[in-house]
Specification:
With 485 residues, this protein is an alpha+beta fold. It has 14 helices and 8 strands. Among the domains are: 2-90, no CATH class; 132-207, no CATH class; 330-484, Heat Shock Protein 90, CATH 3.30.565.10.
């Protein structure tokens, strides 16, 4: 009876196992059929005929190029489509990877990350910390002295040694001391740089990519600060140079002012003395002949004119500087104005020749012609007095440029010394010092006149002699046909 039950149970177990395996096989077959069907549907949707690419491309290739058929690319026929696609995909990706690697240069972060990936076993995954077992206090002290200075570094090390109960100034490189040293060095080279430097000496901590990038950032900041400091230093140098130039100019003006006061006192005292002396002779002396009376009266008259001219210059400059001058606007031709100025300045003589370029003088001016003539007369008179050539020649030329009408007065002398060119338009400035008489107000008056006429007067360095340029704005200049109209 028991034997019969065992046989029945075994038969029942075998039947159950067989039933389970059959169900599993059927289920597996159904799943494979479903997956295969889904893959076929997806393939047909993505690369199936006439969905994305027309059937003609699959049969004959794009543009009829048979070697570019998607399933037989470059003539590779007889392969499974999946193997064919994987092969060309891997090959093209590899080619692109190699080409891009050859033509581009990796960034610093990429290089560091690549190095850590290749040398992965040389890096520890633990958090960076301090371990002074391998550290040498002498090396740390030498490094600290170079960064912080000898006195400050030795004081830091000596204080740490005293706290540890050690004599001298070399403490044990404990983690607490290394952290304190890192904080002190951070104030000079930055936290990341200090950490990296101590790590290199101690040897017990790993310098990570983040630490190196932080060092690079701090280095960039230091370079930026250095650039700013250099720019400020250059600006301070420029300011100092300008201050030195201003000081030299003020010194020259001070010297010229002293010379002016001496000269003006002489210029005032000389005519006044002559006028007083000869007037007393005329008053107190009896029996003077008419010729003698006429001679003394002429001297008194000439000295009075000289005194009046000096006072007029002083008053004229004062009025111009205060802006109290009233301009009398008239229209006239430049050539006529230059003719009048040359005549008023003494004209052309055997010892002084004037060359003019008439072609540029045929323009009309609408401005204060009397004041402009005063500028011309002063420039011509200065050339007559100060040109040191054997045969003095003054060249006058006019032309129209972008800035307006430009009139150049150039002589053939030695010119004005370089150290005097910056102050020739200042008050009390005298060209050549005592070489010729005058109070040194002529060019200062010319500058003020041109400023009131909205023009300018400048000295042109580098010419064959003394060269002055008078500039008039375009709105006061008109051509002959416009003036006649």
């Amino acid at each position: 009876m028991n034997v019969s039950c065992d046989v029945t149970a075994k038969r029942s177990g075998v039947a159950t196992k067989h039933w389970y395996l059959e169900i599993h096989r059927v289920h597996k077959g159904v799943s494979e059929d479903v997956l295969q069907h889904a893959a076929n549907v997806l393939q047909g949707f993505l690369v199936g005929p006439s969905v994305i690419l027309p059937q003609s491309v699959f049969d004959h290739g794009p543009f009829g190029l048979d070697w570019l058929r998607p399933q037989a690319l470059f003539g590779a026929v007889g392969m499974d489509p999946l193997v064919h696609a994987v092969m060309w995909s891997m090959m093209l990706n590899t080619v692109v990877f190699v080409v891009v690697s050859l033509v581009t240069f990796p960034k610093p972060v990429e290089r560091l990350q690549g190095a850590q990936f290749v040398n992965v076993f040389q890096h520890s995954g633990t958090t960076p910390g301090w371990s002074g077992g391998l550290a040498q206090s002498e090396d740390l002290l030498i490094m600290s002295q170079r960064i912080m200075g000898a006195a400050q570094a030795q004081a830091l090390f000596s204080s740490a040694a005293q706290r540890q109960g050690l004599a001298g100034y070399l403490p044990e490189p404990t983690p607490e001391f290394l952290q304190e040293l890192e904080r002190e060095l951070s104030g000079s080279v930055g936290a990341a740089t200090a950490h990296a430097m101590i790590s290199q000496i101690v040897g017990g901590a790993t310098v990570s990519v983040e630490d190196l990038m932080a060092v690079a950032d701090e280095t960039a900041q230091i370079m930026e600060y250095s650039s700013r400091l250099e720019a400020k230093t250059q600006e301070q140098e420029r300011t100092a140079r300008q201050l030195r130039e201003a000081y030299q100019k003020l010194t020259q003006l001070s010297v010229q002012k002293d010379a002016f006061l001496s000269q003006i006192s002489h210029e005032l005292r000389t005519p006044m003395t002559s006028i007083r002396a000869f007037s007393e002779i005329l008053r107190d002396t009896e029996g003077l002949t008419p010729a003698e009376k006429g001679k003394y009266a002429t001297i008194i008259h000439d000295e009075a004119i000289r005194l009046t001219r000096l006072l007029d210059d002083l008053l004229d400059l004062s009025v111009l500087e205060n802006g109290q001058v009233v301009l009398n606007i008239h229209t006239g031709r430049l050539s006529d104005l230059l003719d009048r100025s040359v005549g008023a300045a003494g004209g052309v003589t055997d010892g002084f020749r004037i060359e003019r370029h008439k072609s540029g003088e045929e323009v009309w001016l609408t401005t204060d012609l009397d004041r402009l003539a005063q500028v011309f007369i002063n420039l011509i008179a200065n050339a007559r007095k100060y040109c040191d050539a054997t045969k003095p020649v003054l060249s006058i030329s006019a032309k129209i440029e972008a800035v307006g009408l430009v009139i150049d007065f150039t002589d053939n002398g030695s010119g004005i010394p370089t150290d005097q060119q910056s102050v020739i338009f200042e008050k009390f400035s005298r060209i050549g010092h005592t070489k010729a008489g005058g109070a040194g107000l002529g060019l200062a008056i010319c500058r003020e006149i041109m400023a009131r006429l909205n023009g300018d007067i400048i000295y042109l360095p580098g010419q064959s002699g003394a060269a002055f340029r008078v500039i008039l704005p375009s709105d006061v200049v008109s051509m002959p046909h416009a003036a006649s109209a």
